[in-house]
Amino acid sequence: MTSDVRRIDVDYLARVEGEGEMHVKVVDGKIEDVYFGIFEPPRFYEAFMEGRPFSEAPDITARICGICPVAYQMSSVHAMEYAFGASVGGQLRTLRRLLYCGEWIESHVLHMFLLHAPDFLGYESAVHMAADHKDVVELGLRLKKAGNAIVTLVGGREIHPINVKVGGFYKVPTKKELLTLVPELEWSRDAAIETIRLVAGFNFPKVEQDFEFVSLSHPLEYPFNEGRIVSNKGLDIAVSEWNDFFLEEHVERSNALHSRIRERGAYHVGPLARYALNFEKLTESARDIALEVGLGPVELNPFKSIIVRGVETLYAIEEALRIIDQYEEPASPAVELNIHAGVGHGASEAPRGMLYHRYELDSNGRILKAQIVPPTAQNQLTIEDDLMVVLEDSLEMPDDELTWVLEQSIRNYDPCISCATHFLKLNIERITTE
Amino acid sequence: MSPVGAPHLADVVVIGVGNRWRRDDIAGIAVLDELRERVGDEVELVESDGEPTRLIDAFERAPKVVMVDAVVTGADPGSVHRFTDAELPAQMGIGQSSHLVQLVETIELGRLLGKLPNGLVLIGIEATDFANGEGMTEAVAVGVHEAVVAVLRELAA
Question: How far apart are CA B28 and CA A322, in angstroms?
């Protein structure tokens, strides 16, 4: 008897930030193996930081991801401030939220328009999509610029912002500078609503999962920088308790660590989780449009994460406008630090989900040990679970269609494998050195 | 604005693409660093991590676009290549990229959106080591100097 073995291997996933691979093995119509792998750079950075001063952590970790440097900076500064017992409040805290708004807008818009929308509209890439939907791509590019402008102004530079430091900022913007952002943000508010309506009109595979959603939760705000870690299945812990409740483990075939909730397993971080756990903290207009386009206050279909990204983009724009409106320049750009030995924990909500940092510091503030748990590592098991569910429903599809929907399910998580290199793999055999 | 005596240089933007923390991947940025010393006052130099929307914005900074990046074609490390946008096969990097939106795809997107009316020249430095860390392969570092010359030639053209 010969077995009918069907194998789908995608060694390089396009439109996933960085490097990823997916392997699926189906034997005699039965799913035997599903694997989603990432090559994870934070391990390198954890080792790299040992022996370096605490003050370098925000700049070093910001380089882990070109798309979400602010998240890395924020989780690292909060961890250091926790270790030193420093409290950064008032307008400095608010400015950090503003910077985060910029990053969410940038990252969500990039993902929705250039990486995920092509899946739904049936295009192989943003380029193919742009040929038919130039206006959609242009809408996305302009919307994203509003986020870029915030990050550049508050973060101090377009890529790898350098203005963030432990204790606050090197320099704070003036009210006048912030007000220059307002007209484009006002345009962006309408553009975000248009975007939500647009993406809500896509066709969504009918898939639902009984996720354990995990995110930060703050009594008064939709979470960026602060809160307890909560889940829809009863978890409610301080950020400092992360290692007591979560476990990172090595998995064969991958250099990345997978995270799980101890004695429970897979969990889901990111827009869908934040939305489900913090719906009431959204602005009224973000809640209204979400319900209007058919989302519930909890959304269990991972493919609808694209709509939730739209809702969070609208929230970030409105929050940015609110912050700018109430802003008064703080007297000092940073608080004083009392440097001593200690352990610091920080978690913040990267666009892709909760990002946890932990540092052990010596009495001079040198880093003895660093731990960085990025959102994609936390979602890895959940992504595999989703692939399994999608596969079960779609086994009758030909390989190319099946590959498409599986890749699309991976992109539901906007997996950031970061550290992307930029070389071109060209097959041209032509040398023109003169 | 360009200074008197070098009016043509204001019409060019040089974009160096790379990641400073992935060894040879720094090549495009290393070229930019060297150019900054030599023509930094006269030419707009833009550092990029390859993020597509910012790259497309950078295309708009000047009518002529010169991009510098590490490439892998199978040639000897440090070899310097010159491609025009028309020569970069549009299908490359689409669906087989390890990068979020491949550079070639971004260039194609820029072209479709009308941001590259005068085309683009890519100066590529053959690279080999993309591991995490700092420090270029010796041959690639030599290629960087050669690429600087190649960019200066484009500026003079």
Answer: 40
